[in-house]
Amino acid sequence: MNLKLDNVFRPKLFGLFRKGGYDRKTFTSDLIAGIIVGIIALPLAMAFGIASGVTPQQGLITAIVAGFLVSFFGGSNFLIGGPTGAFIVIVAGIVAEFGMQGLAVATVMAGIFLVVMGLCRMGAIFKFIPYPIVVGFTSGIALTIFSTQLKDFFGMDIAVPSGFIPQWSCYLQNLGQIDIAETLMSAGCLLTIIFWSKVSKRIPGSLVALVLGTGVSLLLSNFAGVELATIGSKFPELASGLPLPKPSAPEFDYESLKSLVSPAFTIAILCAVESLLAAMVADGATGRHHNSNTELIGQGIANIVTPLFGGIPATGALARTMANINNGGKTPVAGLVHAVVLVAIYLFLMPYAVYVPLSCLAAILVMVAYNMSEWRTFKYMLKADRADVAVLLITFFLTVIVDLTVAIEVGVLMAVVLFVKRVMETSSIKVLEQDHIAATESDEMADLDSTLHLDIPQGVEVYEIDGPFFFGLANRIEELEQGRKTGVKVRIIRMRKVPFIDSTGLKNLRNLCQRTEARGIQVILSGVNDEVRATLHKFGFDAELGNQYIFPHIVPALAKANELLRTRR
Q1: Is 385 exposed, middle or buried, given 0-12, 13-18 or 19+ CB atoms closer than 10 A?
Q2: Are the C-beta atoms of 311 and 323 separated by less than 8 Å?
Q3: Residue 389 buriedness (CB in 10 A; 0-12 / 13-18 / 19+)
Q4: What H or E segment, with its residue span, contains residue 522?
Q5: Rounded Cα distance, 318 and 13, in Å
Q6: Euclidean distance between CA atoms 275 and 289, whole angstroms
Q7: What does the pLDDT read at residue 485?
Q8: Most CB contacts within 10 A, which of 74, 433, 494, 518?
């Protein structure tokens, strides 16, 4: 495979300055957008960190490091990178089973997978993942996030097990543990997020809820003696501030690598799908175009480097990307500014994060889950054909009840099966009758001098293959042969509508010819295009059958059939 890096890896930031088209006006727009997006990212980064089973500073580190690298090396002008809700489930599961070192190794491996995907030009493939699978993943993840946040939303001081069904069983058994004050705080923050959009579109409701919730929490603590659970009560070390972490490589061994391949693959697929979908939405909103292969490489670099600083998996964040666009972001510089803003917050404002109520962060994540759920789309997809509905529901329930890793693997497999099914539905093999062959001859005869009516003589049978001749048609010919005519001496296989033939299709064609010739019937191929002819030659099938029995049109094929009939009488 010829890989020219310059053709595959073209970061938008590099081309921006190479062209010399970046001016002060554009920088001002990027600066304003970057500051706003950095402020928007603050509560989300901390909430995603806590929900993923790590610390809020790790979520913030991820937004800083990954956000900078995605904008620096990425293939989109607008994409903002960082932790997202989609990773909460998989990250929490890896941390619970393998610890932070295991998460770091899995994230680095996922980054390597993404870089390889980009170098192999696989970016376009992810655009063709069936929509029911994408909706099933996102809706399942949304429900799982919602389930994990109910403990903090209602202020329940209980140990909640992992797994959707055990979690709900635990909640139902501990309804008496609901804290009224925590629930009122959560409900107030949630209502603020919902209705703030009517007041202002530029200032995010989640940030307003964070500030108001923290203020109310301090008032209740100082004047009413009501203590709410806060980030400080869970992570007291934040009170003294935090230095920027120094990079360090995670420890691993061969056995851990084997165990982490599957989770790493899940992270890579999830990252690729989410980032490229976000980039496509950004393209639609701006009229610009991203480079999907460069974006995969950029996401891979971000996920290789971020764990070295203690971060978690990251990808392109749709909500922050759209906020970037809506606030005037023009180039990847806005993403770099957003990372610098978060660095300043990390260095100077983290001691104040200890006062943020956990119930406030739970309300933010409940809203994230609602926005992710796509329940209207899910309801609409239930009206699709049975195959799409089955794929949607299987992916959804696997994500919720079993495991996201299993759901991703089964989803990818179902995508392949669904693709094969769709192609099979467009491919067919049939026996042509006399009137049919005359009615369909016009396109093939267009470059011939004669357009005479084509007669199929007695003793000649014509099969027509319509569509790709691939492994999905393995049994079609055998089924068709069961109803074959008697007295047939020549069988013409018409391939004018076959764009390509794969190795399995060729094997079945060879088996058909061998079975047919064993019964004394000669096979003739007609309508063979140049690509199919090259495949036949590559495997030596043309010589095996005989080049004198392979024709580009049906007319000479029928003439040859008549000649064979005369010699065999």
Answers
A1: exposed
A2: no
A3: middle
A4: strand 522-526
A5: 19
A6: 14
A7: 60
A8: 74
**How many Å apart are CA 505 and CA 375, to the nearest integer?**
42
- The burial class, CB within 10 Å (0-12 / 13-18 / 19+), for 300 is buried
Contact between residue 282 and residue 79 where contact means Cβ atoms under 8 Å apart = yes
Per-residue model confidence as pLDDT tens digits over 53-92? 899 889 999 999 999 999 999 999 999 999 998 888 889 8
Count of all residues that appear for the chain in the document:
569
Give the CA distances from residue 411 to residues 172, 382, 403, in Å, rounded to whole numbers and listed in that order: 31, 17, 12
Give the chain's radius of gyration (CA, Å): 31
Helix/strand number for the chain, H first, E second: 24, 6
Helix pair 180-196, 205-219: axis angle to 10 deg: 150
- Whether residue 532 is predicted with pLDDT greater than 70 in this model: the reply is yes
**Structure-model confidence comparison of residues 249 and 174, the more confident one:** 174
Amino acid at residue number 270: L
Strands (E), 428-503: 428-431, 460-466, 490-497
Other Cβ atoms closer than 10 A to 345: 20
* Helix, strand, coil shares, percent, the chain, to 5: 70, 5, 25
Residue partners of 162: CB distance under 8 A and separation at least 6? 92, 93, 96
Rama region for 155: left / alpha / beta (φ>0; ψ in -120 to 50; rest): left
Residue 88's nearest CA partner among 31, 43, 44, 34 is 44
What tokens does 329 get? 């972001």
Phi, psi of 428 (to 5 degrees): -150, 160
* DSSP notation for 211-258: HHHHHHHHHIIIII--PPPBHHHH-GGGGG--PPPPP-PPP--HHHHH
d(CA 546, CA 513): 11
Q: By percentage, how much of the chain surpasses pLDDT 90? A: 37
**pTM of structure:** 0.73
Chain centre distance of CA 164: 23
Compute φ and ψ for 376, nearest 5 degrees: -65, -45
CA 259, chain centre distance (Å): 23
Q: Which domains does the chain have, with CATH numbers?
A: 22-419 (no CATH), 428-568 (3.30.750.24)
How far apart CA 168 and CA 151 sit, in angstroms, is: 10
Nearest to 35, CA basis, from 465, 345, 407, 391: 345
Closest alpha carbon to 205 in 218, 217, 188 = 188
Using DSSP, state whether 462 is helix, strand or coil: strand
- Residue of higher predicted confidence among 418 and 340: 340
CA distance 336 to 229: 34
How far is the C-alpha of 165 from the C-alpha of 16, rounded, in Å? 50
**Could you tell me if 85 and 369 are in contact, meaning their C-beta atoms sit under 8 angstroms apart?**
yes
Contacts of 501 (CB under 8 A, 6+ apart): 468, 469, 470, 509, 532, 535, 536
- CB-based contacts of 419: which residues, under 8 Å, 6+ apart? 128, 130
